[in-house]
Design goal:
This protein is mainly alpha-helical. About 70% of the residues lie in helices and about 0% in strands. The chain has five helices and no strands.
């Protein structure tokens, strides 16, 4: 695996970002827009997947990173559960459900594979140490 120097390079983060954009678009319209509780919860879940990947990447140890990735994976599951409710209430069509579900599942699988990789390479640090910052 090539060295990853920024969380934006992580495929699972990119997939979760796409999922966040999709759910924001879906929740802007119709009855979904007026269901403030579910709309807020599913949006926060989508954003939380990307946020936990980023936060974990910026953490100090690989073990912390793996823990944050585990949280991101769990939240992807939470998102899928909320998506079922969204479909059951008629807020999303079956095509919108399937498309969003597919992205959430893809992000979850990518996170899982990344965790497996990191656990198999405990001494390898993902980001470069000693980065210089200019002010």
């Amino acid at each position: 695996m090539p060295t990853i120097s920024r969380f934006e390079e992580i495929e699972a983060w990119q997939t979760a970002r796409e999922l966040s954009k999709k759910i924001y678009s879906l929740t802007e319209k119709g009855e979904y827009a007026r269901d403030f509780g579910l709309k807020d919860q599913i949006r926060r879940a989508a954003i939380s997947v990307t946020s936990n990947i980023a936060e974990g990447f910026e953490s100090q140890t690989q073990q912390q990173f793996i823990r944050y990735l585990g949280i991101a994976k769990a939240i992807a599951g939470e998102f899928r559960s909320q998506l079922y409710v969204s479909h059951d209430l008629g807020y999303v069509t079956i095509d919108q459900f399937n498309d969003s579900f597919r992205l959430a599942e893809k992000a979850s699988r990518q996170i899982s594979r990344f965790i497996t990789y990191l656990e198999g390479h405990p001494s390898q640090r993902i980001r470069e140490d000693g980065a210089s910052y200019e002010v």
